[in-house]
Amino acid sequence: MLISKHMFSRVFLLNFSNVRLRNNISYLSRYLHSGRKPNPHQKNKFFLWYLPVYISPFQKEYLRTYVTMSKGDGENDGHIVSLVKCADFAAIKHRDQRRKDKEETPYINHPIGVARILTAEGGISDPIVLQAALLHDTVEDTETSFEELEKEFGKAVCDIVAEVTDDKSLPKMERKRLQIEHAPHKSREAKLVKLADKLYNLRDLEKCTPQGWTETRVQEYFQWASQVVKGLRNTNENLEKELDKLFNKRNIIVES
Ligand code: NDP
Ligand code: ZN
User: Fold this and answer.
1) What's the rounded Cα separation, in Å, for the pair 177 and 75?
2) How many Å apart are CA 49 and CA 62, to the nearest integer?
3) Rounded mean pLDDT of the chain?
4) Is 207 in the pocket of ligand 1 (CB under 6 A)?
5) In ligand 1, which atom is closest to the CA atom of 140?
6) Quick one: 9 exposed, middle or buried, by C-beta within 10 A (0-12, 13-18, 19+)?
7) Residue 68 predicted with pLDDT over 60
């Protein structure tokens, strides 16, 4: 681990803008790589670590994922290779599918977009969560088995996908009811994927009503999604804030 527990606890006393935070952690990381002792004269870089100030949950998430990704070039290379493999696998599996919008957008735009929401808006760079996001609809919507996912991408990724996959042998309405019931009991990783998935789908519905859908159906979908999101709360501040914006626009009372 490049950032020792000792150093990391000090980092948590920071209160910077995210850019400032990133610069400082990146400096810390480089410095720890070099194996040198801290330079006490570089106060401009270090003195602010001791300020006892507030750090937002978003910054905390950033730090957590930064540390996950800061374990050395070899491991990072491995993560990148795995992510590209997931994107390729998902693209092949979803190749004949289209979204329900009028333009019939290629389905693969959705899992890639869910992963993008997690990184760009959720501040997530945990490679396991991102791999699961790319694969999250493969078992539910294509001829893919969990065995295949576990063999190709490992148990951790497969387990998250399993958590976000509906049991297709059940009637549709029962599956929707179970999503509400099961949401609070999911792992943090699965909740992240579900939050980003709901955000993506609701934004799609905002942009364009699928063919054959009435406005009532769209509104009911939002109502149902708000019930699922209720069980996913306190997982990622920013994603939840973005979802709440959409619910508020439709006058849906958000319960926390
Ligand atoms: P569906 O489950 O049929 O469709 C929504 C799902 O489709 C989303 O969760 C998303 O899943 C995927 N999707 C693909 N393209 C889009 C897009 N452009 N925008 C948003 N989502 C998209 O919807 P309902 O939940 O409304 O329907 C449930 C059941 O009830 C169905 O069997 C439906 O036929 C039936 N029904 C419901 C009516 C109603 O008024 N609620 C009326 C008539 C029928 P993913 O993340 O997997 O891509
Ligand atoms: Zn999805």
Assistant:
1) 40
2) 17
3) 84
4) no
5) 47
6) exposed
7) no
Selected residue with higher pLDDT from 19 and 134: 134
pLDDT number for residue 56 = 72
DSSP 183-230: GGGS-HHHHHHHHHHHHHHHHHHHH-PPTT--HHHHHHHHHHHHHHHH
Phi–psi pair at 108, nearest 5 degrees: -60, -25
Please indicate whether residue 110, judged by its CB atom, sits closer than 6 Å to ligand 1.
Answer: yes
Give the list of residues 6+ apart from residue 189 with CB closer than 8 angstroms, or none: 126, 128, 129, 132, 160, 163
Nearest CA owner, ligand 1 atom 21: 201
Task: Determine if ligand 1 sits within 6 Å of the CB of residue 194.
Answer: no
Three-state DSSP at 103 gives coil
Taking CA atoms only, the protein residue closest to ligand 1 atom 20 is: 201
Catalogue the active-site residues: 140-141
* Amino acid of residue 204: D
DSSP for residue 100: S
Closest approach atom of ligand 1 to CA 137 = 47
* Model confidence pLDDT, tens digit, residues 90-103: 999 999 999 999 99
* pTM more than 0.90: no
Tokens of 135: 């694969």
DSSP 48: G
| DSSP-derived secondary structure letter, 250 | T
Give the closest residue (by CA) to ligand 1 atom 3: 172
CB 28, CB 3: distance < 8 Å? yes
Cβ of 99 less than 6 Å from ligand 1: yes
